[in-house]
Amino acid sequence: MVSLENKSNFFSRINENQKLAAFNSFLLNRPIPKSINEDLNESEEIYYGVLNAIQANNHSNFESCYNRKNKSSPSKDSPSPFVNDDFLIFSLIIGIIRFGFDREWIKKIISIRAKNPTTTTLENILNENYYSKSNLFEIVLMYLHLNDPSLINNDLLNNTFKSISENVKLFESKSDFQIICSLRAYDLIIELKEAPNGSTIDLLKKFNLRFLRRIKILTSITQAVLLIFFFYALIKLISYLPFLREFFEKYDPVFTILSVLGLSLIGNLIPVVKKKLYDVTLRLFGYPKKLVDEVLKK
């Protein structure tokens, strides 16, 4: 069981350590405190950059940080210090999977790490083997909470609770990473613990997942209809107005080039339009504003 005294003492330690405080804020989805240390090494700069990019769901910022690190090619005989930095590696895994980057480099890094339960768990996360008995479930729960909450089920919550409760030497561990994940997971279990299958709460959660999926489908259909209507209206407008038709026929080569550029611009705007339509549709159906903001961040 998590001792309140040990928990309080550890949180005091977190507040005194910038790296731990940043990771704890990241797990809690709170603003990440800026480092007051101006002499950060490259791995530390990347660590803070990755946390902020994931929290902001910013693909390009994460890519910038990731490209600085994935040029490293450490080996088992001469591993770089960052290889066994649980905080950095876990954060990179979240970003790599969330933003769809190739996993080969991070798999290589995992393969040369010291063999321990944390390494095994990170390897299983990369292979999407979330429910293996060899996992540290507190780490898996944190990963899924940040990247794919729909995969969190009662069995995982029960296994995580059992794992934390039976780990009487948790605070004797030298792994600050495991301790922070355990503390946050323990609180999260209380927040997420489901009622039995078929209960009102269980049915509402399942309805919410189905509702969001159907809203996404409705948004895609609405976007397609609007685009079709736009091009149909444009074609009709040109055909009904002779001077416009003559104008387009006269400058046909020019407008061919412009139309290609226009399609390219529309292609870039589609994700933005889709996100805005998703936002508007959720609000029209009365989805809570706070939850809308959370959904749009994912």
Q: What attributes characterize this protein structure?
A:
298 residues; mainly alpha; 14 helices
What does this 3D model show about the protein?
With about 300 residues, this protein is mainly alpha-helical. It folds into two domains: about 5-190; about 200-295. About 70% of the residues lie in helices and about 0% in strands. It has 14 helices and no strands. The protein has helices at about 5-15, 20-25, 40-55, 60-70, 85-100, 105-110, 115-125, 135-145, 155-165, 175-190, 200-240, 240-250, 250-285, 290-295. Helix 2 (about 20-25) runs parallel beside helix 3 (about 40-55), helix 2 (about 20-25) packs parallel to helix 10 and helix 5 packs parallel to helix 7. The two termini are about 30 Å apart.
Structure, briefly:
Helix content is 71%, strand content 0%. It has helices at residues 4-15, 18-27, 42-55, 59-69, 86-98, 104-111, 117-126, 137-147, 154-166, 176-192, 200-240, 242-250, 252-284, 289-297.
Give the CA-CA distance, first to last residue: 32 Å
The largest sheet is: none
Give the tally of β-strands: 0
User: What's the domain count?
Assistant: 2
The radius of gyration computed from the alpha-carbon positions, rounded to a whole number of angstroms, is: 25 Å
Overall structural class, as computed from helix and strand content, comes to mainly alpha
How much helix is in the residues?
over 70%
| Unreliably modeled segments | none
